[in-house]
Amino acid sequence: MSMDHAVRSLIATARAAQRRYERCDQAGVDAVVSAAGWAIMHPERNRALAEMAVRDTGLGVVEDKITKNHRKTLGLLRDLKGVRSVGVIAEYPELGIVEIARPVGVVAAITPSTNPGATPANKIINALKGRNAVIVAPSPKGASTCAALLEFIKAELDKVGAPAGLVQMLPSPVTKDATLALMRGADLVVATGSQANVRAAYASGTPAFGVGAGNVAAIIDTTANLADAAALIARSKTFDNATSCSSENSLVILDAVFDAALAALKGVGGVLLDDGDKLRLQAAMWHDGKLNPQTTAQSTATIAALAGLARPELSRAAFLMVREDGSGPDCPFSGEKLAPVMAVYRARDFDHACKIVADIYRYQGAGHSVGIHSFDDAHILRLGLELPVSRVIVNQIHCYATGGSFDNGLPFSLSMGCGTWGRNNFSDNMNYKHYLNITRISRKIPQQVPALEDIFGEYFSKYGQ
Fold first, then answer.
1. 68 with 118: CB under 8 angstroms?
2. From the candidates 24, 245, 354, 418, which is the catalytic residue?
3. DSSP annotation of 389
4. Spatial distance between the Cα atoms of 67 and 350, rounded to a whole number of angstroms
5. Torsion angle of alpha carbons 75, 157, 50, 286, nearest 10°?
6. In the chain, how many H helices and how many E strands?
7. What pairing do the DSSP bridges indicate for beta strands 290-291 and 286-287?
8. What rounded mean pLDDT belongs to the chain?
9. For position 321, what pLDDT does the model report?
């Protein structure tokens, strides 16, 4: 069987399953959603998936992947609990509008090697909440983990009587041609991972949601609690060896607190490299201007060994820091590193800090998010008003908070839209709403025609007619 024929067969199976599934009521859909969630949250299965992910991709930390699989899925299920996604979901009598949720059909879910369990699960659960079928195109390295996840999901879906073929994946070996064929044949593409995959999704001719590149910068302001800020940054940067696009890649520290902040960061395991070690690390992490995959999501000890860094404390460091002044291709540490390595900038004042972050995002990461450790509300608001970011994360573990957390109001997600800044068509955390069509019934309401004076009165009085 040719690959194109195999993909068409998967899509045909998915369409048949989806037509049956869309007849489910809300209770039936919610049972399917719970089944898919429990498939990854069951402790033994969660551990098996985490161990397989690290073994087969070579990326990340088993215990952190267990935390991620559990936390992201539990948070998503919390967000979805009690949410209507079948039939009438909203009524606005004053507008004469009734909203009805409708499926989008067959979803092509493109997923990365960095989160081969949590990201497919998140997309699958959101798709199922909307009464859709879903076919996953995993990264080649993550295919084994995805296959195991889908076996667990199938077993749970069988318990609740869900149609066979509702959740599938491309057969291994997963190829670019098969992924493209899937994207072209589906009704919606949701793409997380490399920018090449995102661009392919947008170019597929199928409606698509794709995410932008991460390259998070965080500001340590003069009003920050430095001990707390250092602890939060360390937790974020070291979690799963920085596989997350939401891990800090640069710290911009205000001059007045620079030395004290650096001391606090060293106190939680950070090590600042000297100029010689910085050059050696740069040579190891970038080859011909491209990030070396051998350093991606590895421990500091592994990265230090690859770079030939001899200082004994580097093998015990939680994360590495390098001083940086510029941004762009000639300053590669200003870009995304996907490793426990951070560039550190010294800002004269808050104006300068904003400029540094803006310069970094002109190079890479525009639209994603910025972190700030501060109690100055004016400074916090300014970031939201001026910087090209979709999220401003305040005094939090950035890699947790950006994708939703139990102590903030953002939706739980592993796919963050970056708006037009990041060449995306949305700036939300991807959630169940992106997997729905909405039909609106419109009834007549009392006519409301404004007088010209109501619309133009202020304009006329100021500028004349």
1. yes
2. 245
3. B
4. 35
5. -80
6. 16, 17
7. antiparallel
8. 96
9. 98
Torsion, Cα 180 182 188 191, to 10 degrees, reads: -50
Find the radius of gyration of the CA atoms of the chain.
24
pLDDT tens for each residue of 286-319? 999 899 999 999 999 999 999 999 888 887 899 9
d(CA 113, CA 199): 18
Residue 440 confidence class, pLDDT cut points 50, 70, 90: very high
Q: Tell me, yes or no, if 245 is annotated catalytic.
A: yes
Q: Cβ atoms within 10 A of the Cβ of 321, count?
A: 22
The pLDDT value recorded for residue 312 is 86
Name residues whose C-beta falls within 8 Å of residue 424's C-beta, 6 or more positions apart in sequence. Answer: 209, 210, 211, 212, 367, 417, 418
Residue matched to tokens 């619309």: 455
Structural domains in the chain plus CATH codes: 3-210+431-441 (3.40.605.10), 216-413 (3.40.309.10)
| Angle, alpha carbons 200-201-207 (nearest 5°) | 145
Taking the mean position of all CA atoms in its chain, how far away is CA 22?
Answer: 28
